[in-house]
Amino acid sequence: MRVVIADDNAFIREGLALMLSTFGHEVCAVLERGPDVLPALLKHRPDVAVLDVRLPPGFTDEGLRAAAAAREEIPGLPVLMLSQYVETAYAAELLANGASGVGYLLKDRVGRIEEFREAMDRVAAGGTAMDPEVVSQLMARRRAANVLDALSAREREVLALMAEGHGNGAIAGKLFIAETSVNKHVGNIFARLGLPAGTGDHRRVRAVLAYLSA
Asked: What are the distances in angstroms from CA 18 to CA 24, 25, 29, 48, 120?
């Protein structure tokens, strides 16, 4: 897998580069500054970009802006954003800017190597990988707006785990219920969100995005 990395923290960006190289990935570019990100993404067209939300010189949303601009030029470019803190506005904006291949993790998750690798693989494959804390805060915001009223408590639990990127089998294990029950809940969620069976292969991703970015 070909990867572009951008982070203002030298320890994180060099550590990521070393880790990913060790696992057999090709690190195309390791960047520190926001203005360098878009040209590198357009040049290398990686399988996935791992970008800090806040980059020099402004430390605001340079990484996010570069990701959005790159996805305009390269539709579907998989992007995994990293952030030091939960920034729900940025997470919601990322979700709103694309229907697949997006992720948003707190930097603490990088140290959990297997979790990070799984998240990156899901994003590269066109799925989603949202940090559990980000999902929790996004869902709390939606709950305040009564968006969740149509879903049962169990369906909200299932959708939260879907948003993190887990498959039905993994969700069943985490909730200690049968996978057939998860399948039923997922079907109900699709129905409530108006996503019938004929809406394509990415219906699961569309359900998560439609819900979290509503």
From this structure: 10, 10, 12, 16, 15
* Strand 102-106 with 79-83, pairing: parallel
The neighbour count for residue 145, using CB atoms within 10 Å, is 9
Q: What is the pTM of this model?
A: 0.72
Cβ–Cβ under 8 Å, residues 52 and 63: yes
Q: Which residues of 164-173 are buried (b: 16+ CB within 10 A; e: fewer)?
A: bbbebeebbe
Kindly state the tokens that stand for 206: 């569309």
**Predicted confidence (pLDDT) per residue in 96-146, tens digit:** 655 578 888 998 888 889 989 999 999 999 888 888 887 777 666 655 445
**Largest separation between any pair of C-alpha atoms in the chain:** 50
Judged on CB neighbours under 10 Å (0-12, 13-18, 19+), 75 is exposed
Of the candidates 134, 127, 190, the residue with the CA atom closest to the CA atom of residue 158:
190
Of 156, 157, 183, 185, whose CA–CA distance to 169 is shortest?
183
For residue 132, is the peptide bond before it cis, meaning its omega torsion is within 30 degrees of 0? no
